[in-house]
C-alpha cells in the first residue's frame, strides 16, 4: 500500500511537472511571439518613418562615413613614419616644431628689411606710396583753387611703389574734363601727368617702375596743358584737352638704391615651411601654425593693408595692424577648427594629397588679389554689379559653379546622415541674412571673409573636393581679415558710398550769357530755383573747385556765377555745378563746355 501510494504520488508529481513544463513552454512561446511582434512593429515604424521626405533626407542606414583612400598610400605615409621613428617622443617632436617655426620667424623678419626706411644719396628719405596715392586729393579736399594741395611746382622727391599697382582702378566715377572715369586706372596724360593721377600707376605707365614695385622720382611742374593719351606697359592713359594747375613728371632715380619687393621671397619661404608642416605631421592641429604663417604672409607680403599717407616706412603700420587683427582671427580659427577643420583632417593619411589640395587651396584663397583678380567684380554691391562691365555675367557664372558644388556636398552629407542638421544650420543662416536685409538705415555687405565663414561648415567632410573647397574658404577668410580687417556686415549708406555719388539733386542750368570784354570773354551762369534743403552751390572749372556761393550771403548770393576768361586762353574749359549742404558738396552736373571761341555747350538745362 505504501509502495502504491508512493507510486501514485510520484505519478502525480510527474503529471504536475509535465503541466508546469507545458505552461512554461506556452508562456515562452507567447513571449517570443510578442517580441517578434514588437520587432516587426518597430521595423515597420522605421520603414514608414524613412518612407517620408524627412526619412529620405536622413540618408542611408547605416550611414556611409566618407574617408579618403590615399593614392600610393605607402609613399604618402613614409615621411611622417620616418619622422616618428627619428623623434618618437611627443616632447622631441614639439621641440622640432618649435625649431622649425623659430627658423621661419628669423627668415621672415630678415625678408622684411626691404620695408625699412631708405634714403637717396642726398640723405632725403624716400616716400612710401600706396597704389592710389596722388598729389591732388579727390572730393574737393584740396580746397578752393587747390590751396590745400600746394606746392604746385619747383619740388621733387624720391618715392617707392609697392607691387600690384597696375591693376588698381577707381571704383567710383572721377571727373576728367567731359568724362566720368570709372573702373580703370586713373592715369591722365603721358608724362607729364595730371596732378590727380595715381603716382605709382603713372610710374608704371612711364616705364619707371614695374608691376613688382620699385623706386623713382616725382617732379612737380605746375600748370600744364593738353594731356595726351597713350597705352604703355598695359595701362591706357586718359586724355584731357585743357589745363590743370598741377602736373608732375616721373623719372628713374639713380641716386636711390631701391630694395626689391619681398613678396616673392616670402611666398617661397612660407610655401616651403607650410608644405613641410603639412607633409610631415599627422595631427589636424597643424592647422594653427599654418594659419598664422599664411596670415602673416598676407599682412606683410602678398596683400598688405594701406599704411599712413606718404610715410617713410610702412613696417610700423603693418606690424600694428597685424597684431590688431591676428588675435580675434585666432579666436575664429579655434571655432573653425573645432567645428570643421578637425573633422576633415582627422585620421587623414594622404599627406601629399592634403598638401596639394588643402594647403594649395589655402594659398589660392589667401592670394585672392592674384588668383581672383581676373573676375570683373570689385565689390559685391548692387551699385557695382549694375555699373561694372561684365559683373553680372561673372556673378551668374559663379552662382552656377556654386550650385554644382553645393549639390555635390549635399550628396556627401546625405551619405553620412548629417544632411538634416546642416540644412537646419543653413536655414538659420539664411533667416539671419533675410533679417539683415530688412533692417532700416543699413545695407547688408557680404565681404569675402563672410563668404568664407558662411560656406566653411559645408566642407566638414573628408573628401578630396572638400579639401580643396575648405582650403580656398580658409584663404578667403585670412585674406579678408589680414587685408581689410573685420569690416561690418551691416554698413550705412555713407560707408558704402565712400567717395561715390550721393544720388542727390543737381542744379538745372539756364542758358548762360557769354559776352565779349576788352580782356576776353565774360560768361554769366544762372540756374533754376534750388530746393530748400541746400545751402549753396559749388562750381568746378576743369575739375578744380573755383567757388562756393551761399544763399545766406546777401552780398554774394548763390543765384549766379561769373567767369572771365582772358582772350589769349584758347583751350576748352569744363564746368560742373553741384549743391552744397552742411559744408559738403553734393553731386555735380555733367560737364558743360566753354569752347575756345566763346561758344557754350552745356548739360541738360532747366
Give me the Rg, rounded.
Answer: 36 Å
Low-confidence stretches: 1-38
Helix content: 40-55%
Number of domains: 4
Structural class: alpha+beta
What's the average pLDDT? 87
Oligomer state of the chains in this structure: single chain
Q: Main β-sheet: number of strands, strand sense, barrel status? A: 6 strands, antiparallel
| Total count of strands | 20
| N- and C-termini, Cα separation | 141 Å
- What's the total helix number? 16
Shape: globular
Keywords: Membrane, Transmembrane, Transmembrane helix
Pfam families: LCCL (PF03815)
Domain LCCL: 187-238
InterPro entries: CRISP-LCCL_domain (IPR051957), LCCL (IPR004043), LCCL_sf (IPR036609)
Amino acid at each position: 500500500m505504501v509502495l502504491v501510494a508512493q507510486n501514485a504520488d510520484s505519478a502525480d508529481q510527474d503529471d504536475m511537472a509535465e503541466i508546469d513544463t507545458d505552461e512554461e513552454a506556452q508562456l515562452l512561446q507567447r513571449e517570443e511571439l510578442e517580441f517578434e511582434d514588437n520587432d516587426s512593429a518597430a521595423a515597420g515604424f522605421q520603414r514608414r518613418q524613412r518612407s517620408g521626405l524627412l526619412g529620405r533626407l536622413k540618408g542611408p542606414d547605416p550611414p556611409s562615413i566618407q574617408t579618403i583612400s590615399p593614392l600610393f598610400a605607402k609613399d604618402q605615409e613614409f615621411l611622417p613614419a620616418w619622422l616618428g621613428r627619428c623623434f618618437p617622443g611627443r616632447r622631441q617632436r614639439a621641440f622640432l616644431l618649435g625649431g622649425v617655426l623659430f627658423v621661419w620667424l628669423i627668415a621672415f623678419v630678415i625678408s622684411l628689411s626691404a620695408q625699412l626706411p631708405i634714403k637717396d644719396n642726398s640723405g632725403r628719405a624716400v616716400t612710401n606710396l600706396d597704389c592710389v596715392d596722388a598729389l591732388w586729393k579727390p572730393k574737393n579736399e584740396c580746397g578752393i583753387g587747390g590751396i590745400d594741395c600746394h606746392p604746385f611746382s619747383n619740388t621733387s622727391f624720391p618715392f617707392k611703389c609697392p607691387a600690384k599697382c597696375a591693376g588698381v582702378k577707381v571704383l567710383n566715377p572721377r571727373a576728367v574734363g567731359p568724362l566720368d572715369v570709372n573702373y580703370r586706372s586713373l592715369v591722365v596724360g603721358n608724362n607729364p601727368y595730371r596732378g590727380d593721377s595715381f603716382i605709382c600707376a603713372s610710374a608704371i605707365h612711364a616705364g619707371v617702375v614695374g608691376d613688382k614695385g620699385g623706386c623713382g622720382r616725382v617732379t612737380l611742374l605746375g600748370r600744364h596743358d593738353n594731356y595726351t593719351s597713350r597705352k604703355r606697359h598695359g595701362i591706357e592713359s586718359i586724355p584731357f584737352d585743357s589745363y590743370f594747375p598741377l602736373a608732375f613728371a616721373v623719372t628713374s632715380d639713380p641716386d636711390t638704391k631701391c630694395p626689391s619687393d619681398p613678396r616673392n621671397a616670402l611666398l617661397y619661404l612660407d610655401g616651403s615651411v607650410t608644405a613641410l608642416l603639412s607633409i610631415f605631421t599627422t595631427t589636424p592641429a597643424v592647422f594653427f601654425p599654418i594659419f598664422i604663417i599664411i596670415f602673416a604672409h598676407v599682412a606683410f607680403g602678398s596683400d598688405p593693408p594701406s599704411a599712413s599717407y606718404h610715410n617713410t616706412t610702412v613696417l610700423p603700420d603693418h606690424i600694428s595692424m597685424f597684431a590688431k587683427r591676428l588675435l580675434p582671427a585666432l579666436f575664429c580659427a579655434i571655432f573653425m577648427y573645432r567645428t570643421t577643420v578637425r573633422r576633415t583632417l582627422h585620421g587623414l593619411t594622404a599627406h601629399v594629397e592634403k598638401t596639394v589640395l588643402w594647403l594649395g587651396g589655402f594659398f589660392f584663397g589667401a592670394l585672392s588679389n592674384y588668383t581672383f583678380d581676373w573676375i570683373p567684380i570689385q565689390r559685391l554691391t548692387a551699385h557695382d554689379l549694375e555699373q561694372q562691365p561684365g559683373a553680372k555675367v561673372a556673378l551668374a557664372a559663379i552662382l552656377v559653379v556654386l550650385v554644382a558644388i553645393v549639390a555635390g556636398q549635399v550628396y556627401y552629407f546625405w551619405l553620412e546622415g548629417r544632411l538634416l542638421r546642416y540644412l537646419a544650420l543653413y536655414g538659420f543662416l539664411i533667416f539671419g541674412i533675410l533679417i539683415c536685409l530688412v533692417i532700416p538705415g543699413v545695407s547688408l555687405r557680404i565681404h569675402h571673409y563672410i563668404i568664407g565663414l558662411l560656406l566653411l561648415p559645408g566642407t566638414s567632410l573628408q573628401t578630396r573636393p572638400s579639401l580643396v573647397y575648405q582650403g580656398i574658404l580658409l584663404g578667403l577668410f585670412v585674406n579678408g581679415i589680414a587685408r581689410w580687417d573685420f569690416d561690418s556686415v551691416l554698413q550705412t549708406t555713407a560707408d558704402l558710398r565712400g567717395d561715390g555719388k550721393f544720388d542727390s539733386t543737381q542744379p538745372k542750368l539756364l542758358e548762360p550769357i557769354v559776352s565779349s570784354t576788352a580782356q576776353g570773354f565774360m560768361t554769366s551762369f544762372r540756374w533754376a530755383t534750388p530746393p530748400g534743403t541746400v545751402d549753396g552751390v559749388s562750381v568746378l572749372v576743369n575739375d578744380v573747385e573755383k567757388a562756393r556761393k551761399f544763399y545766406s550771403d546777401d552780398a554774394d548770393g548763390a543765384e549766379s556765377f561769373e567767369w572771365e576768361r582772358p582772350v589769349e586762353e584758347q583751350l576748352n574749359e569744363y564746368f560742373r555745378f553741384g549743391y552744397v549742404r552742411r559744408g559738403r558738396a553734393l553731386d555735380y552736373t555733367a560737364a558743360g563746355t566753354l569752347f575756345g571761341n566763346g561758344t557754350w555747350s552745356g548739360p541738360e538745362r532747366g
